[in-house]
Structure formats: structure tokens, C-alpha cells
Amino acid sequence: MRVTDGWSAELYRDAVRATEGVPSWAGTALEASSPGLLLLLGLLLALTGWSGLRRRDAAALAGALLAVGGTLAAYALSEAVKVVVDEERPCRATGVTDTLGACPPPGDWSFTSNHTTLAFGLATGLVLLRPRLAALALPLALAEALSRVLLGAHYPHDVVAGAALGSGITAATVLLLLPPATALLRRRPATGRAEGASLRVDSPAA
């Protein structure tokens, strides 16, 4: 499938035009920032889970594990959608070839954006578990989405769909499974404590 007109294609062309004249090193830096942003979001979520483990907070630990699981599930679904939709990358479909980033090879489909799906999945988990991190997590996820368009790898509608997919599946996973997962962790003996001790339960939004 090729998308050559409509609001998304026009916004894509405008975004690529906005990067004209940008030095090549800036494009290299933007490409490097894409996995870097995902790594940062992943580290923040890992630290949240580690903090829950140290404080014997069953809800925080269970929430972090569920957020990772929900994000991976969203990524898997995004890959499945790519195979079904077969949307050509905009750097080939629109005829715009002068992009900041290298155009992915043929067969590497565009819809939806995997990077954006992962970013918003991780960010949603962080927001649900530690709302005070929203001011950091959400801008990082938005920066990831924007970078995919500016690099020329995705249409705007690709990243919008990825954001909805990552956020929706991760939120549903955490909110629906947090009570049983917390109860399961509470039943496990805590390391270094007397037999029968358990993780305490605190609100994940604390």
C-alpha cells in the first residue's frame, strides 16, 4: 500500500522540508537519539521496579513487570499489523528521498511505528506507576515519535497509531492484571526475612 496524498502525506512532506539544510551530523545525532530515548525510558521503568523490590512494594514491582509485558505485547501486535497492512515507507512512496535518516529497505513496512509503540508503552507504564514522572516520560515518548517523522522513516499517522497501540495495551495490561499480580507476589516469601514474610502493598501512584 502506498500513501501519496492526504493530511498525513502532506505533514510528512512539510516535516522533511523543515529539515532541509540541516547538517549531516545533526541527522546522525537524531538517528542515535531514537534508540537512546527508548533506552532511557526502559531504564526509568527498570529503576521503578528495582525501587519496588528494595522497598518490598509488591504493587510497584508487579506494575513494572506488567508494564514491560504490556509494552512487548504492543510491539508484537505492531509487527503483526505491519505484515497485514504492507504500507510502503514514505521515503519511497512520496518520492521524497532527501531525508535526514536512511530509508529502511523494501519490505520493512511503515505502519505502525514500532519505535513509537515501544516509547509510549514504556511511558504509559511509568505514568501509571509514578505519575510524577509524567513530566519526563511523556515528552521523551513524544520526542521519539517526532524523530521518526523528521528522520523520514514514518508518516505522522504511523506514529499516532503506534502511540495509541503502545499506550492502550500497556494501560490495559497494568490496570487489569495489577491486583492479581500483586496478590501473587505477596504470597512469595521475601528474601532475607523470616519464612512467611511477604512484600507489602503500596499504591503504585505513591
TrEMBL record:
<feature type="transmembrane region" description="Helical">
    <location>
        <begin position="159"/>
        <end position="178"/>
    </location>
</feature>
<keyword id="KW-1133">Transmembrane helix</keyword>
<dbReference type="InterPro" id="IPR000326">
    <property type="entry name" value="PAP2/HPO"/>
</dbReference>
<protein>
    <submittedName>
        <fullName>Phosphatase PAP2 family protein</fullName>
    </submittedName>
</protein>
<dbReference type="InterPro" id="IPR036938">
    <property type="entry name" value="PAP2/HPO_sf"/>
</dbReference>
<feature type="transmembrane region" description="Helical">
    <location>
        <begin position="58"/>
        <end position="77"/>
    </location>
</feature>
<feature type="domain" description="Phosphatidic acid phosphatase type 2/haloperoxidase">
    <location>
        <begin position="64"/>
        <end position="174"/>
    </location>
</feature>
<keyword id="KW-0378">Hydrolase</keyword>
<keyword id="KW-1003">Cell membrane</keyword>
<keyword id="KW-0472">Membrane</keyword>
<feature type="transmembrane region" description="Helical">
    <location>
        <begin position="32"/>
        <end position="51"/>
    </location>
</feature>
<dbReference type="Pfam" id="PF01569">
    <property type="entry name" value="PAP2"/>
</dbReference>
<keyword id="KW-0812">Transmembrane</keyword>
